[in-house]
Design goal:
Keywords: Coiled coil. This protein is mainly alpha-helical and 328 residues long. It is built from five helices and nine strands; from the N terminus they run H-H-E-E-E-H-E-E-E-H-E-E-E-H.
Length: 328
């Protein structure tokens, strides 16, 4: 009832109940006192701890503040250093930018110069290649010209049907085909000029004879001591078995000159045997042991034409040999 708040306080209690209630209240009071003591002790402990913690926090805070102040000073110093470095770097960057701008301008100028020089180099290369091609072409042409015989070109000797020809002029005549004296005389003029050039080429001065090339009015001079006789190397009129004796002397002289040219060619080549195609002796040219006289007198037109053809073939052979000789 004492513990019940709804119970009336003025209820009378018996002794035992009162004693029991007092004992219970004392017990509860003792427990409350014990708790109070514990709370007070805990409060004191907390106060001590709070005081110690407060003083410790102040010292730590002061130390931390001092440390932070020092760090701030250090960082400010580093900041000033970094700002100085930044300013220096910015200055260097400006200088580098200026240098870069100048370098880019110089680079552009140099590239422009390089491009111009490269274009000039390509042009020069093309010109060099062109000159080299032209040089190669000229060298090939020179070699081709060296391999060619100017004499063979200037005096084209060939066979046309039964005739020997020089530069297209027939040297001979046949009964069934009359060749005019103008053509024959022009052919003799070409032969005379060719033999005169051959004598100079091989380095020979004719003995007893001298060739006078004058086109279709050429002549052969016979030198006998102080006396000189000139025989015409051209004819006229018809075919006369007993005529044209002056022309015959000229043709024989022409053959003797060719014999002397062959002898000089043999000497230059150190050859023992004849170097021309057909053997020549006196007034004859021999083909397969058959002699053909170069004189018209007492000769047939066919055999005389054959003799003139053999004469021209020997001259063609002499040209081929002479071009291989070193300059005299």
């Amino acid at each position: 009832m004492l513990c019940n708040p709804d119970a009336p306080i003025d209820v009378s209690l018996c002794k035992d109940c009162t004693t029991s209630s007092l004992d219970e209240m004392k017990r509860q009071l003792a427990e409350v006192d014990a708790e109070l003591i514990n709370y007070d002790k805990a409060l004191q402990d907390l106060s001590l701890k709070s005081s110690a913690t407060q003083w410790n926090d102040v010292d730590a805070t002061a130390a931390q503040l001092q440390r932070l102040t020092m760090e701030e000073a250090t960082l400010l110093e580093e900041l000033r250093t970094l700002e100085e470095q930044e300013a220096k770097i910015k200055k260097e960057n400006r200088e580098l930018d200026l240098t870069l701008s100048t370098g880019e301008k110089e680079s552009d100028d140099l590239y422009r110069i390089f491009r111009n020089n490269h274009r000039m180099f390509l042009q020069c290369s093309e010109e060099c290649q062109s000159y080299q091609l032209r040089r190669n072409l000229m060298e090939e042409s020179l070699e081709m010209l060296k391999s060619m015989s100017t004499l063979d070109i200037a005096f084209c000797i060939s066979i046309h049907e039964n005739y020997g020809t020089i530069n297209g002029l027939r040297l001979g005549r046949l009964p069934h085909e009359i060749v005019e004296w103008t053509e024959i005389n022009a052919a003799f003029g070409q032969v005379a000029l060719l033999m005169q050039i051959l004598s100079e080429r091989v380095g020979i001065i004719f003995t007893d004879y001298e060739i006078v090339p004058r086109g279709n009015n050429s002549a052969i001079r016979r030198l006998s001591g102080t006396k000189t006789v000139e025989y015409p190397l051209h004819g006229s009129g018809g075919w006369k078995p007993f005529g044209q004796s002056q022309l015959d002397h000229a043709i024989v002289g022409l053959l003797q000159c060719l014999i002397q040219i062959e002898a000089k060619l043999r000497e230059r080549h150190n050859a023992v045997s004849p170097v021309l195609m057909y053997r020549m002796k006196g007034e004859q040219i021999i083909d397969n042991e058959s002699p053909y006289r170069v004189k018209m007198q007492f000769n047939s037109e066919e055999r005389w034409t054959k003799a003139m053809k053999l004469l021209l073939l020997n001259l063609k052979r002499a040209i081929a040999i002479s071009v291989k000789l070193p300059e005299h």
